[in-house]
Amino acid sequence: MSLDENELPRTEDEWRVRLTPEEFRVLREAGTERPWTGEYVDTKTPGVYHCRACGWELFSSDTKFDSHCGWPSFDDAIPGRVKEIQDRSLGMVRTEIRCARCDSHLGHVFHGEGFTPKDTRHCVNSVSIRLEPQRD
Ligand SMILES: [Zn+2]
Predict the structure, then answer these.
(1) How far is ligand 1, taken at its centre, from the CA of residue 129, in Å?
(2) Distance from the CA of 57 to the center of ligand 1, in angstroms?
(3) What is residue 28's predicted lDDT score, i.e. its pLDDT?
């Protein structure tokens, strides 16, 4: 289900036709879904979360935890799959996270909140990811 490198859209217009309007707004225009509205906020199903835009594996359900912030939260990403960018929008300095492969917006990452021993919260829009449940 992951797109091959040569199948990745090259322009925003190509992305626009592949994604729903809400997916496009969040993934390609760095939007944010309203808290508590995403389909994965409380999901506990074991599996792997893929980038909704390109299908790359980004987060394991093992790293998902209850942050009570209204968005799916992970204390770690699959190594090398998520890139961090300084974001100075809205008068704050935050660290934006994007898919390292297709450059789509996922959410933000926060440190030092003390939620888990890794002390890291990847705050991710549900609409940016898609869960592939584990098969046994
Ligand atoms: Zn991607």
Answers:
(1) 9
(2) 8
(3) 98
Global pTM value = 0.94
Mention every residue, 6+ apart, whose C-beta is less than 8 A from residue 101: 8, 51, 54, 56, 81
> Does residue 69 carry a catalytic annotation?
no
Query: What b-and-e string marks burial along 13-42, b requiring 16 or more CB atoms within 10 Å of the CB?
Result: eebeeebeeebbbbbbebebbeeeebebbe
**Residue 136 pLDDT grade (very low, low, confident, very high; cuts 50, 70, 90):** confident
- How far is ligand 1, taken at its centre, from the CA of residue 2, in Å? 9
Which DSSP string corresponds to 53-88?
TT--EEEEGGGEE--SSSS-EES---TTSEEEEEE-
